[in-house]
């Protein structure tokens, strides 16, 4: 039986997981909870990748990091996640030049419980699909994007959708921030 992905209008599930927040010895790990994010009153953008120490994944992670300020400017908490452990995340960050200075946490869903609850666990290898969730400050999932394991996502599109959702207006096809919205 195939599990459905939590989708639009669902409440994002609670979690408390280890996350890598630094490569500085003794300061690498942090217990991150969804309650903490929800209490911030901010939007959340959580993006998942299949595996650490791979090829497509670091290109996406680095691009999200390049856009970190843009997410912050939109009152959005950015979180990266995979089913790898916090120790693998930390080793990858130390090893990969593009990941050393990440400004967002790398969540470790080693139990695969959050990926399972979100419905994004690939059946054969039990790794997360490339999934992106935009969650509003009330905890409601407002956008879900899933990609094949071999295809990287477009960070500018994630920002465009976040901008559109934050207008609370009707936004036409290819709408960009600053353009007119529609009236019904």
From TrEMBL:
Its EC number is 1.11.1.26. PROSITE patterns: THIOREDOXIN_2 (PS51352). GO terms for biological process: cell redox homeostasis; cellular response to stress; hydrogen peroxide catabolic process; response to oxidative stress. Pfam families: AhpC-TSA. It is an enzyme of class 1 (oxidoreductase). Transmembrane segments: none annotated. Homodimer; disulfide-linked, upon oxidation. 5 homodimers assemble to form a ring-like decamer. GO terms for molecular function: NADH-dependent peroxiredoxin activity; thioredoxin peroxidase activity. Residues 6-167 form the Thioredoxin domain. One of its GO terms (cellular component) is cytosol. It catalyses: a hydroperoxide + NADH + H(+) = an alcohol + NAD(+) + H2O. It comes from the Bacteria. SUPFAM superfamilies: Thioredoxin-like. This is Alkyl hydroperoxide reductase C. It comes from Flaviaesturariibacter flavus. Keywords: Antioxidant, Oxidoreductase, Peroxidase, Redox-active center. InterPro entries: AhpC/TSA (IPR000866), Peroxiredoxin (IPR050217), Peroxiredoxin_AhpC-typ (IPR024706), Thioredoxin-like_sf (IPR036249), Thioredoxin_domain (IPR013766). The active site is at 57 (cysteine sulfenic acid (-soh) intermediate).
């Amino acid at each position: 039986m195939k599990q459905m992905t939590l989708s639009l209008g669902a409440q994002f599930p609670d979690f408390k997981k280890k996350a890598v927040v630094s490569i500085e010895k003794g300061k690498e790990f942090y217990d991150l909870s969804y309650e903490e994010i929800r209490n911030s009153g901010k939007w959340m953008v959580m993006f998942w990748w299949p595996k650490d120490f791979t090829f497509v994944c670091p290109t996406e992670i680095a691009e999200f990091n390049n856009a970190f300020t843009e997410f912050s400017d939109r009152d959005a908490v950015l979180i990266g996640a995979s089913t790898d452990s916090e120790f693998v995340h930390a080793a990858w960050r130390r090893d990969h030049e593009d990941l050393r200075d990440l400004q967002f946490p790398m969540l470790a869903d080693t139990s695969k419980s959050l990926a399972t609850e979100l419905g994004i666990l690939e059946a054969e290898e039990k790794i997360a699909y490339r999934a992106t969730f935009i969650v509003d400050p009330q905890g409601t999932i407002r956008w879900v994007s899933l990609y094949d394991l071999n295809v990287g996502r477009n960070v500018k599109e994630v920002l465009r959708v976040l901008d559109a959702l934050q207008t609370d207006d009707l936004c036409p096809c290819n709408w960009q921030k600053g353009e007119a919205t529609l009236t019904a």
